Amino acid sequence: MIQDISPSRLDNSFRTQQPQPESIAMCFREGKLLAAVTDGELRFPRYHELAAHSTEPVYLFSVDDESFFLTDPAAEPEGYQYYTVRELRDQCAGKYLYAAFTAYHLHQWYADNRFCGVCRGEMQHDDRERALVCRDCGHKIYPRINPAVIVGVISKGRILLTRYRRGYAHNALVAGFTEIGETLEECAAREVMEETGLRVRNIRYYKSQPWGMAQDILTGFFCETDGSDAITMDDSELRAARWCRPDEIELQPQQHSLTNEMMRLFRDTNGHLPPEYAPVSTEIPPQKTRIYFTRHGETTMNAADHISGITDCELTENGIAQAEQLAAVCAEHREIGLIVCSPLKRARMTAEIIAEKLHIPVVTDERLREWDYGSYEDQPRGTTPDFQAAKREFGVRMKDGGESLLQLAHRVYSCIDDIRKQYAGMTVLCVCHGGVCRVAETYFRDMTTEAFSQFFMGNCELREYEV
Question: I want to staple 367 with a disulfide (CB 3.0 to 4.6 A). Which of 163, 206, 411, 461 is the partner?
Answer without folding.
Answer: 411
